[in-house]
Amino acid sequence: MNVPLSPSAPAPAEAAALPAVELAGIAKLFPARGESTSVSALRGIDLVVETGKIVGVIGRSGAGKSTLIRLVNGLEIATSGRISLFGRDVTRLSEAEWRSERRNIGMVFQHFNLLSSRTVFDNVALPLEILGTAKAEINRQVTRLLEIVGLSDKRDRYPAELSGGQKQRVGIARALATEPRILLCDEATSALDPETTKSILALLKRVNRELGVTILLITHEIPVIKEICDEVAVLEAGEIIEHGAVFDVLTRPQHPSTARLVEGVTRVEIPEALAARLSPTASPGALAAIRIGFVGENATSPVISRLTTTIGVDVNILTGRIDFIGGRPFGSLIVSVPGAEPAFGAILASLKRLGFEIDPLGFFETEAATSEAPRHVA
Amino acid sequence: MSPELLRLILDATLDTLHMIAVAGGLGTLLGLPLGVFLATSGKGELFAASAVNAVLGVVVNITRSTPFIILVVAIVPFTRLIAGTSIGTSAAIVPLTVAAIPFIARIVEGAIREVDQGLVEAARAMGATPLQIVSKVLIPEALPAIILGLTLAAVSLIGFSAMVGAVGGGGLGDLGIRYGYQRFMPEVMLIVVAVLVVLVQSVQTIGDRLSRHMNKRIRHI
């Protein structure tokens, strides 16, 4: 698997000044057809993909992701706006000009789109055949690519004899055959199981890091963004509602739709058994449940021990989750602390001082109090 | 059975094979590109030319909806022009070919349309020209279905070739009608039918095997 990708891999910093992809004020209108009215697929799209980065566009189905990614290799033509690749304006390219431009842009598909009549080798060779590359050169290049994706032993197999993950590896090798500088991934892992998804994402990351290929991917899965993207743009109903570094967008979403999208990844839900017992007011001796949000550096600060030593309260962790994006930790804990004033107010104040996001959830009777209460015997 | 009769049957069989081979060959030669064009010239397709597509579609449908026996008679002047005569085996090849072209074209069109559009998109994304998409993607991917379709066409041609016997074409149909029916020799009729059955069966078997061999979507274990 870990074959060095290329002895002559271009340094990722090369031509870093010019963004690989730049979309400015893009709109795409699908004209009316028959009885249906025209559909506005994209509106006012501004998106810059810096060279060497992995940028993800996330959105629900129908948000316009597929249209967006197809503008970059000319499979769709924008109704208005400007597209540049490495600083070169490609907005008005003819179909013939696009054909030669496309050798610089590889594309990977959700359903692989491999030719069933060709072997693995011949599938990877196809883009080179289309270019008119010499046989010996094709043989050399395909052999090298199959080594990179770890499928050298499958070169004479047909796609029907491969697993989904293997098919996508062929798809990636094929997309890289013409040594493109940009790789477009159209839901490349959406048809794969989580385990296979991980290995395909790892491969894409290697392609990015070691070959210096800029990757623009679209997905509806947050884990894909979390796993490999440097930046993420959130697409909703044809508009980009949020764009930034993955860590920032996922941990501090600005738009309510983004917040809903990332909820499952960053938020910890209160266990149901506890939720049923929560009440908004404190009864004597009750405990308070608090959600503490961690972002970045403070996620690792010793909050529990500090509360215990500085205020002298017992902190009990009820549930929690700490995760990492690009090596930076984030997450949240739900803890219980004594609910009686003034101790409770002091706890909240000191948590805020430490820079945590605090969300008091309510009060509940302790287990001990419940079990000590006289049972009703019939 | 007399050696003369055996000779007659052998000659008739060869005549029939000659007719379907030439008509099938010419029909494929002209029907294949026509079918590819029909499948790729609709609105928004590779060779978008919807007006030409519509006209060709109508021509194909007219040819296909005309009963074969009427077609044979209707194009007699054309047959004379091409073959120099309107009677005999060579003459029969003309209407057989004329009937085979649209039949094969529709079969090829259907097979091409069955190819996953995702493959066309992938090829476009690689920078393939429309002609490359046809030659490297559409035809190879549709080939198993095309082979099955051509088998169907060959079987139909065997049937049609028996019909041209009625209007003076040669071959097994002609033999069956002249000896089996008009001279009332039931044993000849029986042999003619038996040979036709064997022909159809062989063509179908070969076609099925070939198509299966080419179809890499099935795992061959």
The ordered H/E elements of chain B are HHHHHHHHH
- CATH class category of chain B: Mainly Alpha
Number of helices of chain B: 9
Strand percentage of chain B, roughly? under 5%
CATH fold group of chain B: MetI-like fold
Instruction: Choose one word for the global shape of chain B.
Output: elongated
Terminus-to-terminus distance of chain B: 48 Å
Q: The biggest beta sheet of chain A, please?
A: 6 strands, mixed
Quickly give the structural class of chain A.
alpha/beta
User: If classified by CATH, what would the architecture of chain B be?
Assistant: Orthogonal Bundle
What is the tally of beta strands of chain B? 0
Give the strand order, joined by hyphens, for the main sheet of chain A. 6-7-8-3-9-10
Low-confidence spans of chain A: 7-16, 369-375
Give the name of the CATH superfamily of chain B.
Answer: MetI-like
Computed CA radius of gyration of chain B, to the nearest angstrom: 20 Å
Global geometry of chain A: elongated
**Stretches of chain B where pLDDT falls below 50 for ≥5 residues?**
none
- Biggest interface found: A-B, 30 and 23 residues
